[in-house]
Write a structure and sequence with these properties.
Length: 268
């Protein structure tokens, strides 16, 4: 009897404490409390060349998220200096230098990783989903963008990837064969993947999110650049994939994207 009574008292105390915890205001850190408000934004410096390339989706995403950042456009000489000094991890750009309250700067690299950091740094932007499944779907689309560009990058930057000997340089016979395959098989296959994905999206955004995600910024910028590529006959690709073309138009009609480019138009 004594044991049952003691257990009953303990159970009652636990239930009372749980009820009090549920009633505690969110500001007191109760079970129903909201996410803590973010602290001051860290200082951000984006290093890339004075071209669109892989830096453009990051510029656009940070602008969309309302993040202040220094847009540093490197010359080739400045890039080589940073590369040989070891300042750039993997010897590549884009690179995002992050300096928070600790005062110790951290350099982030790889477009996908930087894009995810931007989304997490500005959760109110909805660039990167909280839901684990939806976040994985966004990640998959960012990775698929990299897969799409693999053959293009290897053909364009042959010496970097060790294909210059096999392909024979920009005018080599091997290069001509690769470019023909890109136009006839490789890129149409990848565009068909994305055409299917966009057909299934009720919102028109690439991951079927309500608002643009980092995948939209990566692919919206990438498709626009491919449109101008004669290597893959980009204009024809967009014409034969109407959902992709509509997506590119939708992305570049987004207010933050229009604002970014309008602010950078040369003065009349």
């Amino acid at each position: 009897l004594f044991v049952r009574a003691a257990c009953a008292r303990v159970g009652a105390r636990i239930r009372a404490e749980a009820a009090a915890e549920m009633k505690r205001p969110a500001a007191e850190g109760g079970a129903a409390s909201k996410k803590a408000a973010p602290g001051p934004q860290p200082k951000l410096k984006l290093l890339y060349f004075d071209i669109a390339g892989k830096g453009e989706p990051l510029r656009l995403a940070m602008h969309h998220a309302g993040l202040e950042f220094e847009d540093i456009r490197l010359t080739r000489e400045e890039f080589m200096t940073k590369k040989t000094s070891g300042e750039l991890r993997f010897g590549q750009v884009p690179a995002l230098i992050v300096q928070d309250g600790s005062g110790v700067p951290v350099t982030l690299v790889q477009t996908g990783a930087i894009a995810r950091y931007i989304g997490k740094l500005a959760p109110q932007s909805e660039l990167y989903p909280d839901d684990a499944i939806k976040a994985a779907q966004v990640d998959a689309l960012v990775d698929q963008a990299s897969d799409m560009m693999c053959a293009v990058m290897c053909a364009k930057y042959q010496d970097r990837f060790g294909f210059d000997g096999a392909l024979g340089g920009p005018e080599g016979e091997g290069t001509k064969k690769v470019e023909a395959a890109l136009r006839s098989e490789v890129m149409p296959r990848h565009f068909a993947f994305f055409e299917s994905v966009l057909t299934a999206s009720a919102s028109g955004w690439i991951a079927a999110t309500d608002a643009p995600s980092i995948a939209d910024f990566v692919l919206g910028a990438q498709f626009k650049q491919l449109e101008e590529s004669t290597m893959v006959d980009g204009k024809a690709l967009l014409q034969t994939h109407p959902k992709v073309r509509a997506f590119v138009e939708k992305f570049h009609a987004e207010a933050s994207v229009r604002d970014w480019y309008a602010a950078r138009q040369p003065a009349a």
